[in-house]
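Hello forum,

I keep getting stuck at the same step: I have a sequence, I want structure tokens, and every attempt I make locally crashes halfway through. Rather than fight my setup again tonight, could one of you with a working pipeline run this one for me? It's a single chain of 210 residues.
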Amino acid sequence: MILHGYWRSGTAYRTRIALNLKGLAYEQAGVDLRQGEQKSTAYMALNPQGLVPALEVDGLVLTQSPAILEWLEETTPEPPMLPADPAGRARVRAMAALVGCDIHPLNNLRVLKALRESFDATPDQTDAWAARWITAGFGALEALVADHGDGWTYGSTPGLADCYLIPQIYSARRFHVSLDAWPRLLAIESAAEAHPAFIAAHPDRQPDAD
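Reply #2:
Ran it on my machine without issues. Output:
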């Protein structure tokens, strides 16, 4: 497996966590988003959308991290990242989508660049923009964890929703968002800091990191 990604990308980060949770070996190919490498001819041939991550597996190229994580769950079912019951799987997918659909896309590099270039947003304004969506989403997720978590986002073992949450917490800190209002999410972060799959996936530990 070859994972094409950027060390600080939240979507690549969540994919690394999932690969590590599954115990799968993979190589990494860095794609520096700051230098525009995602729009190079070679990378666009791999992923016409020009986004990270992309996962190469035996001639197959998979894009979009939600699809990649679901593929990993289907092809490597142990250890599971989703509960056994349909209701539990739906809840976990909803928690993941809360981050993946309603928080992350609004504070990724493309959006922040557009805010700066098209609307002359200052660094303080882009931080406030990101914080607006992170705060709303984390408030809802804290309540869901109170109902369904037991050490992790859902239940007592790390799973799909944690793959989404931990990179978003990392991002929140980059945008100077105080996390004190969400003690359950902070407890999950503490658990991740002691878990080998999450430790190895951390941006600072990646071969292309600054």
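The domain at 86-197 is CATH 1.20.1050.10 (Glutathione S-transferase Yfyf (Class Pi); Chain A, domain 2). If your local run keeps crashing, start a new thread with the error log.
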